C-alpha cells in the first residue's frame, strides 16, 4: 500500500516508504534501574539515582563487574564524563566556578544543593543557543585568506599569454566565478566545477575560473578591488586583480563563443562581475542556484544560523532580528543591479530550489530551469563492486541493531545538532548503532558513535558510496534543517543502498526521499526523537530488511556543459525538457562522461572492455514511445568501433535497442554495445530531440 | 488622528538602549511624537545627533519640580528616572496629547502598538501585568509571582493614559505619590513608581488590564509565552504577535546581566528568545556612543566629583534638619562636609549608581 494512503500513520511522519508501527526495543538491553543505594557513603548514595548505569557504562567503557556509581565518583567526573544524558559535567564545573574551586563532585553538588538552588545541570538552550550567540553579521566576520600561501602574482601580460595558448584551436571560452578555487578545495560544488571544466575542455572550449583570494560571507566591499585566484583549464595560474582579468578579456584572440557562469558570488564585487561579463560578451550567462545567495546573504536561509526562515520579505521582523537581515536590502539591491546588467539563465539543481527561488525573488532573469547535478539510475545497474579501497575502520557486518549513519561535516547546517541530541539520548542503549562517515579531520569524538574515515575527492568521488555500502548502513540521517538545493549526501546514501531520514523542510532531501521512495520524512526534530525512542525506526529497519531494494547508480551529470546552453533561450519547456540526453557510458567499473551532445561523442575505453551500456535520459515527448510502450533513449545516427562504422542492425548492438529506422536507431535508455576488444567508441545522435530532465520523477 | 506622545526616561549611560527603543518605534509609528526625558546632564563631547531619534528632549530639571536639586538627591538613579515619569505624563497631557504612552528604555517594539493605543479609545488607563498565567514550581512562583507581590503586579515599563478626566486625575495622583516617595523600599510597601499602581484598578474607573501575551514579554513571563517565528517572518509570543519585549537587565555583548540569568532560566530551549536577545545586544552595541556609555550620572556625584553613597541619600531623605541646613546637597562644602565630619564611614561605601 502506498505510504501516502495510510491513514493511521501519525501526522509527524510526513512520508514513509513503509507503513510503520512502533516496536519495543529488543529485550537484550534492559535498562538498569536507578537504585536507592545504602552504601553508607554520603556521596555515593546521593548520586546513585542520577547515574544512568547503561549510559555511563557505554560512556566510560566499563566492564560488567565495575560499579558505574563508584567509577563516576572516583574517576569519571574528574575525566569530564557525563553520568547521564542530561547532566553536563564539564558545563557545571565551568559555569559554577565555586564548585570547581572547591573540588567537589559536581553531580553530588547538583543533587544535594544545586537542584534546589535552581542551578542548571547543562547549558540552557544547548547547542542552538550557542549557534545563535555566535552568529555574526556577514560583513563583520573577519575575512580569511583563501589562496595558497605561495600563490604567485600574475600580470596582464602573463595571463594574456596563458590564455592565448589555451584558446589555440578552441571554439569557445567559459569564464566561471565561484567563491573558492575548485582545484584546492574538495566539496560537491568544487567537484561539479571540475567536471564542468573537463567537459567544456573536451568540447574545444577553454575554461577560465576566478575566485576571490579573500574568502567572505558576502560581497566584497565596493571600494576595494578584489584579488582573484585565477585558474585556466584546471591549472592554477596565480593571483590577479579584477582589472587584470578585465584587461585580457579585451584580447582579439578569444574564441567567438563565450559563456559566463556564476556558481557563487561570495567574495566578489557584483559591479566587477557585471563589468567582466560585459567585456566577455557572452552568448549565454548562467547563474547557478547551488544555494540561496540570490535571495539572501544567508545562503542557506538559516535565520541566525539556526532555523530555516522561509525567505520572508526583507522588511519582516524575522529579517530584522537576523544577522543576515541587517544588510539584506543593500545586498539584494546589488544583486538586482547584477541581474539587470547580465541577462542570466537561472539553473537550479532541483525543482524545490527553483520553486523557492521563483516564489521569493524579484530579480529579472532570462529563463529558469532545473538541471540536476547527478541522477540516480535504478534497475539493472552493473553490479560489480565499486573500485577503490575499503574504508577503515570497518564496522562489524550485520546482523545487529539497525545502523544509523551521519555523513560529512558535523555542523549545524548539515543537521549535526539534531543528530547529536539523538545520539545523546540513545547512546546508552544498544537499540541502534550510530556511524559517522567523514574525513578524519571532520569527525567529532562522541561516545556511542563509530567512525568511518571517508574522503571524497575529484579522483575518488564515490568514496562515500563505497564506504556506506561496505558498512551496510540502514538509514542515513540527512538532517539539514534548510531546503538543500541538491544534497550529494542523500544521493550517495541512496546509491549505497541505504534509506534516508529527512526533515520536512529539507528541500531536495525530502523531495528525493519521496521521489525515489527510499526513506522517511519526519516533521521536525521532535519527530526524529520520537521516531527512534518509540521504536518506529526499529519497525522501519525490520521492514526494510524484508524488502531489499537494489542500489541505484549515481551518475554525476549536471553541469553547465551538459546543459546545452546554445538552446537555453529557445527551450519551449524549460522546466520539463532538456537538450541534454544525460548520456554516459557505463562500464563494469565506472562511468565515462560524454562530451557535449549534438556532435560526435568519443569514448576511449580501457583494454579488455567486453560490453558497455549507453545510459541516457528518456526522450520527449512521451508519445514517441514505441507501440510496446518501451521508452526511447537516444537516436543513434552512426556508431563506430575503432574507427569502423557498425551497421545499426549489427548483432553487437546487443540489447536495449528499438528496431532500426531509416537513418537511425533508438536505444531504450540503456542500449548495450559489445565491444569485443574495441578501444574506441564513437557515436553521433540524430538532431532535434529533447529529453525528460528528471528521469526518475515518475 | 489622535495625537500620541510616547516618552521614555533615562540617563546618558542608558542612551544606547533608548536609541534602540526610539528606532524600533520610529519604524512602526512615524506618526507618534517621541520624547526623551533625561535625568542627567549631557557629556561634553556628545555627538550633535545623539538624540536625533527623538522628536523632543526634556531635562528632568526643567519639569518644574519644586526644589529639584534637593528632591533629586533623595534618589538613586533608578528611583530618579522613575520618580519623574508622572510629572512628564502630566505635562504631556497638559500640552494636548490625546494619548500618552510610556515605555522603559530597555524595551524594543517588534510590531505596531496600535492595539494598545486603541485600547485608550475605550479605557483611560492601560496596564500590563507581569504575569497573565499562574506559575508552577517553587522557584518560578518565588521568582515571578513572588516578584509581583513584592515589587508590583503591573510592570510600569509600560503605561498608556488617555487625556480625559480620569487620565488626568490618575496623572495628578501618581505625581503626588512619586514626588513624595519614589523609593526602592519594599519593606515600606513601596517600589519606585510601580507598586503604587497596584492601587490603580481600585482607585480609578476605566482601567484596562492588557492580557495580550505579545505585550511586555520579558524573562518573568517568557515561560508562558513561547516565542515562535513564522514562515512569513512574524515573531509571535504565546501565539500572538510579539508587540514589545522588555529586555530587563540584559548584559552587553560578552557579559551576563541578571536578566540573562532569568532569561536562560525561563526561556529554556526556546532558542528564538535567544535570537531576540542576541539581536538586542547587537543593536545596543551599534547604538552605543562612547561619550555617553561611560558617562557618570550627573546626580550621582557631589559637586567635587566624588560619588554619592546611597547611605548619604537615605540620610538626606530622613533628616529634615540636614535638608534645612544644606539647601544644595550637591555642594561639596555643605552636606558632604558635614558627613565627613559627623558620619565619615558612609562615604567609604560606593553607591549602586
Short description:
The complex is a heterodimer of chains A (698) and B (353). With 698 residues, chain A is α/β, with parallel strands linked by helices. Helix content of chain A is 27%, strand content 20%.
Walkthrough of the structure:
The complex is a heterodimer of chains A (698) and B (353). Chain A is of the alpha/beta class and 698 residues long. Helices cover 27% and strands 20% of the residues of chain A. Chain A has 20 helices and 33 strands. In chain A, the strands form eight sheets. In chain A, strands 7-6-4-3-8-9-12-13 form an eight-stranded mixed beta sheet, sandwiched between helices. In chain A, strand 6 (227-232) and strand 7 form a beta hairpin. Chain B starts with a strand and ends in an 11-residue tail after the last helix. Chain B has helices spanning 15-28, 68-72, 77-83, 85-94, 114-122, 138-151, 165-180, 200-203, 258-267, 271-287, 290-293, 310-318, 320-325, 335-342; strands spanning 4-10, 33-38, 56-59, 99-103, 107-109, 125-127, 158-162, 184-185, 190-191, 207-209, 227-229, 235-237, 240-241, 244-246. In chain B, helix 1 crosses helix 10 and helix 4 (85-94) runs antiparallel to helix 7. Chain B is globular and about 65 Å long. With 353 residues, chain B is an alpha/beta fold. The longest helix of chain B is centred in the last third of the chain and has 17 residues, at 271-287. The chains are: A alpha/beta (698), B alpha/beta (353). Chains A and B meet through helix 7 and helix 12 of A and helix 9 and helix 10 of B.
Amino acid at each position: 500500500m502506498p505510504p501516502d494512503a495510510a491513514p493511521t500513520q501519525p501526522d509527524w511522519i510526513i512520508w514513509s516508504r513503509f507503513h510503520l508501527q512502533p516496536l519495543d526495543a529488543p529485550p537484550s538491553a534492559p535498562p538498569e534501574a536507578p537504585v536507592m543505594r545504602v552504601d553508607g557513603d554520603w556521596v555515593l548514595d546521593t548520586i546513585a539515582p542520577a547515574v544512568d548505569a547503561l549510559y555511563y557504562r557505554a560512556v566510560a567503557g566499563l566492564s560488567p563487574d565495575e560499579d558505574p556509581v563508584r567509577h563516576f565518583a572516583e574517576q569519571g567526573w574528574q575525566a569530564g564524563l557525563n553520568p547521564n544524558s542530561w547532566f553536563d559535567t564539564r558545563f557545571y564545573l565551568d559555569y559554577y566556578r565555586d564548585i570547581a574551586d572547591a573540588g567537589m563532585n559536581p553531580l553530588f553538588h547538583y543533587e544535594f544543593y544545586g537542584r534546589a538552588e535552581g542551578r542548571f545541570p547543562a547549558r540552557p538552550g544547548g547547542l542552538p543557543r550557542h549557534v545563535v550567540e555566535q552568529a555574526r553579521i556577514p560583513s563583520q566576520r573577519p575575512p580569511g585568506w583563501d589562496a595558497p600561501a605561495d600563490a604567485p602574482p600574475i600580470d596582464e601580460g602573463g595571463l594574456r599569454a596563458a590564455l592565448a595558448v589555451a584558446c589555440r584551436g578552441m571554439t569557445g571560452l567559459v569564464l566561471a566565478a565561484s567563491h573558492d578555487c575548485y582545484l584546492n578545495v574538495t566539496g560537491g560544488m568544487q567537484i561539479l566545477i571540475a567536471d564542468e571544466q573537463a567537459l567544456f575542455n573536451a568540447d574545444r572550449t577553454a575554461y577560465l575560473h576566478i575566485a576571490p583570494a579573500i574568502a567572505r560571507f558576502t560581497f566584497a566591499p565596493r571600494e576595494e578591488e578584489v584579488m582573484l585566484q585565477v585558474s585556466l583549464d584546471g591549472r592554477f595560474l596565480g593571483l590577479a586583480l579584477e582589472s587584470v582579468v578585465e584587461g585580457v578579456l579585451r584580447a582579439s584572440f578569444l574564441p567567438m563563443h563565450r559563456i559566463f557562469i556564476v556558481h557563487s558570488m561570495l567574495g566578489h564585487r557584483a559591479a566587477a562581475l557585471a563589468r567582466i561579463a560585459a567585456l566577455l560578451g557572452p552568448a549565454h550567462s548562467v547563474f547557478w542556484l547551488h544555494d540561496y545567495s540570490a535571495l539572501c546573504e544567508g545562503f542557506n536561509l538559516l535565520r541566525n544560523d539556526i532555523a530555516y526562515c522561509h525567505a520572508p520579505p526583507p522588511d519582516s521582523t524575522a529579517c530584522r532580528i537576523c544577522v543576515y537581515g541587517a544588510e539584506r536590502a543593500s545586498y539584494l539591491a546589488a544583486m538586482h543591479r547584477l541581474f539587470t546588467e547580465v541577462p542570466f539563465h537561472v539553473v537550479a539543481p532541483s525543482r524545490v530550489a527553483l520553486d523557492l527561488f521563483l516564489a521569493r525573488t524579484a530579480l529579472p532573469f532570462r529563463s529558469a530551469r532545473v538541471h540536476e547535478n547527478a541522477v540516480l539510475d535504478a534497475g539493472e545497474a552493473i553490479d560489480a563492486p565499486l573500485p577503490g579501497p575499503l574504508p577503515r575502520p570497518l564496522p562489524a557486518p550485520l546482523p545487529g541493531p539497525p545502523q544509523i549513519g551521519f555523513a560529512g561535516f558535523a555542523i549545524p547546517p548539515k543537521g549535526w545538532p539534531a543528530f547529536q541530541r539523538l545520539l545523546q539520548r540513545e547512546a546508552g542503549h544498544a537499540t541502534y548503532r550510530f556511524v559517522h562517515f567523514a574525513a578524519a579531520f571532520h569527525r567529532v569524538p562522541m561516545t556511542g558513535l563509530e567512525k568511518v574515515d571517508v574522503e571524497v575527492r575529484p579522483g575518488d568521488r564515490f568514496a562515500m558510496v563505497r564506504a556506506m555500502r561496505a558498512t551496510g548502513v540502514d538509514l542515513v540521517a540527512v538532517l539539514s534543517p534548510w531546503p538543500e538545493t541538491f544534497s550529494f549526501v542523500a544521493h550517495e546514501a541512496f546509491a549505497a543502498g541505504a534509506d534516508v531520514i529527512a526533515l520536512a523542510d529539507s528541500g531536495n532531501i525530502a523531495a528525493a526521499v519521496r521521489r525515489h521512495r527510499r526513506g522517511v520524512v519526519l516533521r521536525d526534530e521532535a519527530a526524529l526523537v520520537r521516531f527512534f525512542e518509540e521504536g518506529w525506526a526499529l519497525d522501519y529497519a525490520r521492514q526494510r530488511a524484508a524488502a531489499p531494494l537494489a542500489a541505484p547508480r549515481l551518475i554525476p551529470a549536471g553541469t553547465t556543459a551538459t546543459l546545452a546552453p546554445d538552446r537555453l533561450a529557445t527551450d519551449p519547456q524549460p522546466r520539463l525538457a532538456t537538450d541534454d540526453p544525460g548520456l554516459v557510458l557505463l562500464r563494469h567499473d565506472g562511468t565515462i562522461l560524454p562530451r557535449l551532445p549534438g556532435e560526435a561523442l568519443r569514448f576511449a575505453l580501457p583494454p579488455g572492455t567486453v560490453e558497455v551500456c549507453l545510459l541516457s535520459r528518456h526522450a520527449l515527448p512521451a508519445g514517441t514511445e514505441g507501440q510496446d510502450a518501451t521508452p526511447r533513449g537516444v537516436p543513434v545516427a552512426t556508431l563506430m568501433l575503432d574507427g569502423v562504422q557498425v551497421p545499426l542492425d549489427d548483432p553487437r548492438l546487443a540489447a536495449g535497442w528499438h528496431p532500426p529506422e531509416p537513418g537511425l536507431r533508438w536505444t531504450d535508455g540503456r542500449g548495450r554495445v559489445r565491444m569485443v576488444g574495441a578501444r574506441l567508441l564513437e557515436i553521433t545522435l540524430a538532431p532535434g530531440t529533447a529529453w525528460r530532465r528528471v528521469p526518475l520523477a515518475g | 488622528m489622535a495625537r500620541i506622545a510616547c516618552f521614555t526616561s533615562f540617563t546618558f549611560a542608558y542612551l544606547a538602549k533608548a536609541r534602540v527603543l526610539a528606532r524600533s518605534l520610529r519604524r512602526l509609528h512615524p506618526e507618534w511624537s517621541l520624547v526623551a526625558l533625561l535625568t542627567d546632564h549631557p557629556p561634553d563631547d556628545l555627538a550633535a545627533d545623539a538624540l536625533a531619534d527623538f522628536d523632543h528632549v526634556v531635562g528632568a530639571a526643567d519639569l518644574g519640580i519644586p526644589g529639584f536639586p534637593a528632591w533629586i538627591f533623595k534618589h538613586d538613579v533608578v528611583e530618579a528616572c522613575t520618580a519623574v515619569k508622572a510629572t512628564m505624563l502630566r505635562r504631556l497631557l497638559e500640552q494636548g496629547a490625546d494619548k500618552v504612552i510610556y515605555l522603559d528604555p530597555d524595551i524594543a517594539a517588534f510590531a505596531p502598538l496600535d492595539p494598545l493605543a486603541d485600547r485608550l479609545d475605550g479605557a483611560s488607563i492601560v496596564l500590563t501585568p507581569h504575569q497573565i498565567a499562574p506559575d508552577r514550581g517553587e522557584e518560578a512562583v518565588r521568582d515571578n509571582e513572588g516578584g509581583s507581590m513584592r515589587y508590583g503586579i503591573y510592570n510600569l515599563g509600560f503605561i498608556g493614559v488617555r487625556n480625559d478626566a480620569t487620565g488626568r486625575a490618575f496623572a495628578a495622583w501618581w505625581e503626588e505619590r512619586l514626588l513624595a516617595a519614589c523609593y526602592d523600599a519594599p519593606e515600606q510597601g513601596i517600589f519606585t513608581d510601580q507598586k503604587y499602581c497596584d492601587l490603580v484598578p481600585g482607585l480609578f474607573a476605566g482601567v484596562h488590564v492588557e492580557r495580550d501575551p505579545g505585550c511586555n514579554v520579558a524573562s518573568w513571563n517568557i515561560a508562558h509565552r513561547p516565542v515562535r517565528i513564522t514562515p512569513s517572518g512574524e515573531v509571535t509570543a504565546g501565539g500572538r504577535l510579539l508587540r514589545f519585549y522588555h529586555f530587563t537587565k540584559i548584559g552587553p555583548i560578552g557579559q551576563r546581566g541578571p536578566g540573562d540569568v532569568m532569561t536562560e532560566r525561563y526561556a529554556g530551549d526556546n532558542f528564538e528568545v535567544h535570537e531576540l536577545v542576541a539581536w538586542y545586544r547587537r543593536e545596543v552595541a551599534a547604538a552605543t556612543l562612547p561619550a555617553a556609555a561611560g558617562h557618570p550620572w550627573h546626580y550621582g556625584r557631589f559637586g567635587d566629583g566624588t560619588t554619592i553613597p546611597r547611605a548619604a541619600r537615605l540620610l538626606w531623605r530622613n533628616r529634615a534638619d540636614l535638608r534645612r541646613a544644606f539647601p544644595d546637597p550637591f555642594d561639596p562644602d555643605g552636606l558632604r562636609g558635614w558627613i565627613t565630619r559627623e558620619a565619615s564611614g558612609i562615604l567609604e561605601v560606593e553607591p549602586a549608581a
